[in-house]
Specification:
about 300 residues; alpha/beta; Rossmann fold; 5-stranded parallel beta sheet; about 30% helix; disordered N terminus
């Protein structure tokens, strides 16, 4: 399986290590004279018994270390190890992200607190259902680290060449939707592998299971907990009217999407009608729904 994390970075340079620290004239190719001496440098005195012709007059000489007595063999020089610099930032190895397993049912002694449990949640709903607002609020008020991953935000990472579905659903817009879902899935798996919960939001249609729920299950894993947010049509129309840019749809498109979302009734997935609920109240209901989903995961 390919991991979203990169290859380990090279270790930081430390004093006394690296190519510059190991370089010396003696390490050059045999017979190469080395760099010319600085002006005024006369070189080291020639040791007794060495013919002057064996010492090039232009090569700098180094003082030979004092040799030990003849009865003691010369020992190679040892360099003391250089301790690591305490303030150096090295590469932090992260656990690779894998498919999210089905959550374990809580013990019979007590119910699981969803606000303190690492979860992967998929919030489904039409445009104007309040998915993004509820997901952000829910992620902000949990007792464990939690990330919010919005499919629309990831789709809009594409700037030049963005395929806007409002301009027509075609191969390019569908390909970018699939790419965004896969990118969100990789991100969710990596967050979860490192102890950070995730909530993803997407307008998943019940009549397209391969692209919708089936795609999310492939990208994240069977432990993903889907919840449908489905207020009444009049509420969705009001909220959509407050949007701007390419997030705002026509009333006809909103009504068509809402009608398709009604297919989730009878699907077995938990559905929250937040027509009369504000964002904090909807987030509390979401916690209650997730507690039941952990105890008895939905079949999807």
């Amino acid at each position: 399986m390919q991991h979203a994390v990169g290859a380990p970075l090279p270790p930081p340079h430390q004093p006394g290590h690296g190519p510059a620290a190991d370089w010396s004239p003696a390490g050059q190719h045999p017979g190469h004279p080395g760099p010319a001496p600085a002006p005024g440098f006369t070189g080291a005195p020639v040791p007794p018994g060495v013919p002057p012709t064996q010492v090039p007059h232009h090569a700098p000489q180094h003082h030979a270390p004092q040799q030990p007595p003849h009865h003691a063999p010369a020992q190679p020089a040892h360099h003391a190890p250089v301790p690591p610099t305490p303030d150096t930032t090295g590469h932090v190895q992260l656990p690779p992200g894998g498919p999210v397993a089905m959550p374990s049912p809580p013990p019979a002694a007590g119910a699981t607190d969803p606000t303190a449990t690492t979860l992967a949640v998929l919030l489904i709903g039409p445009a104007g259902a309040g998915k993004t607002s509820v997901a952000k609020y829910w992620a902000d008020h949990r007792r464990v680290p939690t990330a919010h991953i919005s499919l629309d935000d990831v789709r809009e990472w594409v700037r030049s060449g963005f395929a806007d579905p409002q301009s027509g659903w075609n191969d390019h817009s569908e390909a970018q939707y699939r790419l965004a879902r896969r990118t969100c899935g990789f991100a969710a798996r990596n967050f979860l592998a490192n102890g950070i919960s995730c909530i993803l939001d997407d307008a998943v249609f019940p009549d397209r299971p391969v692209v919708g729920l089936g795609g999310w299950k492939r990208h994240v894993g069977p432990g993903l907990l889907p919840v449908v947010l489905l207020p009444g049509l009049e509420i969705v129309l009001e909220r959509n009217a407050e949007r701007s840019g390419n997030r705002r749809l026509t009333d006809e498109e909103v009504a068509r999407i809402h009608g398709r979302m009604a297919g989730w009734y009878g699907s077995g997935l938990p559905i929250i009608d937040n027509s009369q609920l504000d964002v904090p109240a909807t987030a509390r209901v979401l916690d209650d729904v997730l507690a039941r989903s952990i105890a008895s995961p939905p079949q999807w």
